[in-house]
Design brief:
Blueprint (H helix, E strand, L loop, with lengths): L7 E9 L1 E2 L11 E2 H5 L3 H15 L1 H5 L1 E10 L7 H14 L1 E12 L6 H10 L3 E7 L3 H6 L6 H14 L4 E7 L6 H14 L3 E6 L7 H8 L7 H17 L3 E4 L2 E3 L6 H7 L4 E4 L4 E4 L2 E5 L3 H9 L5 E6 L2 H13 L5 E2 H8 L3 H4 L1 H9 L3 E3 L3 E4 L1 H5 L1 H6 L5
Parallel strand pairs: 1-4, 1-11, 2-3, 4-5, 5-6, 6-7, 7-8
Antiparallel strand pairs: 8-10, 9-10, 12-13, 13-14, 15-17, 16-17
């Protein structure tokens, strides 16, 4: 009987840097798709992606791919055939898990029946769509080009196409947002019954139009207490709808946690493809150039478009495992950390644990360390306690 080759688990992120219009709060690497379609730049980018995938063929052949996440930008802003061809190429090179999760980010108003047919044919089985808020005035204020009605139309089209695993994005802490806005969003979630919800607090990123408006004083944000009240309302309100928090910003029905994002939070291996994509493999972290021209040029020369690479030493990897793991409601397993890093966790972090327990920020059992509700609000303070000098 031939010896079976052990395949290494791998998750893949693919960055599609095109949107119909850039949101006012977004600092991701993205460009208006219309500016690139005119001279064939979109197709050229996907040809570069195909080349990058080919250069990783050796790695892919030895891997069991358990999740693929196609993000951006707005991947649904481009022709569906491009997405389909990428997944088919990966399928020809790698071994796909029987339970593989393939997620595509979409925005309302960018879907067509033809695109959905391409997605279904390629094996996409999870859609993540940005709702953000049900207040259309707020949507306009943050630069979103859809309305709540547009969202509903797209949501219904996805369901009709047969994709049941839908995730919605919500935002809180928006300019002028109220508790009533959060209640309305929760109410809509209860009607739609998605399998997953991601809820993020607005962060004003330097260099964005929203940052400029904030600096000028033309917008005001909810104060810290109101922002926290919105967060706790989301936690409790979604739980009442059967969508339970499993990570600081993520909620799901039973067994519908994001497999791909769990790879990040459990500090496991992932490969990033596309402009500005990041990877973590074999104790190395590396990232691609953020310039589309440089990305394509390097690949045309047969070179990977990596511009930064760093070795992750054991102490850094341990800290990341603790920090990322504590984001999960289930917390981190002390036994697993002890075995993986050859440490005695309770001894190594005795002072940190004493301080955190005294402040009511963590719960410690024989094997599990996790955040309290108070610890979730002050999570960054908790993480710093485990950082070594």
């Amino acid at each position: 009987m031939p010896k079976q080759i052990k395949l290494n688990p791998l998750s893949i992120y693919i960055h599609i840097p095109f949107c119909v219009s850039k949101c006012a709060y977004c600092d991701f690497i993205s460009h208006r798709v219309g500016d690139f379609e005119i001279n064939g730049g979109v197709e050229a980018y996907f040809n570069s992606l195909k080349t990058e995938i080919s250069l990783y063929s050796g790695l892919l052949e030895k891997s069991k791919v358990r999740s693929i996440y196609i993000g951006g930008g707005t991947p649904s802003s481009v022709d569906g055939k491009f997405i389909h061809n990428l997944i088919m190429q990966l399928k020809s090179l790698a071994n796909f898990s029987d339970e593989i999760e393939i997620t595509l980010e979409v925005n309302p108003g960018t879907l067509t029946e033809e695109k959905l047919n391409h997605y279904i044919a390629s094996g996409i089985n999870r859609i993540s769509m940005g709702l953000q808020t049900t207040n259309d005035q707020l949507l306009h204020k943050i630069g979103r080009i859809h309305s709540t009605n547009d969202f509903m139309t797209s949501y219904e089209a996805i369901k009709r196409a047969g994709i049941e695993n839908l995730s919605l994005d919500l935002m809180f802490g928006l300019p002028g947002q109220t508790i009533k806005d959060i209640e309305n969003a929760i109410h809509l979630v209860g009607i739609l019954k998605p399998k997953h919800v991601s809820a993020y607090s607005l962060k004003i990123e330097e260099g964005t139009p929203l940052s400029e408006s904030y600096q000028k004083g033309s917008i005001t944000l909810p104060d810290e207490q109101l922002e926290r009240d919105m967060y706790h309302l989301l936690i409790n309100g979604l739980a009442e709808k059967g969508i339970m928090q499993y990570e600081l910003s993520n909620f799901s029905s039973a067994s519908f946690e994001s497999k791909h994002n769990l790879v990040y939070w459990e500090n496991e291996a992932y490969l990033g493809l596309g402009v500005s994509a990041h990877s973590k493999l074999n104790n190395e972290r590396f990232s691609n150039t953020s310039r589309i021209y440089d990305y394509s040029k390097l690949l045309s020369e047969g070179k990977l478009p990596i511009v930064e690479k760093e070795f992750i030493d054991t102490s850094e990897d341990l800290f990341e495992s603790i920090m990322l793991g504590l984001r999960l409601n289930k917390g981190v397993s002390i036994n697993k950390l002890n075995q993986k890093y050859n440490i005695d966790f309770n001894v190594k972090y005795a002072n940190a644990l004493e301080n955190l327990l005294k402040q009511g920020l963590v719960i410690l059992t024989e094997d599990i360390l996790k955040l309290t509700i108070k610890g979730m609000d002050l999570s960054n303070q908790v993480f710093l306690q485990f950082m070594e000098d």
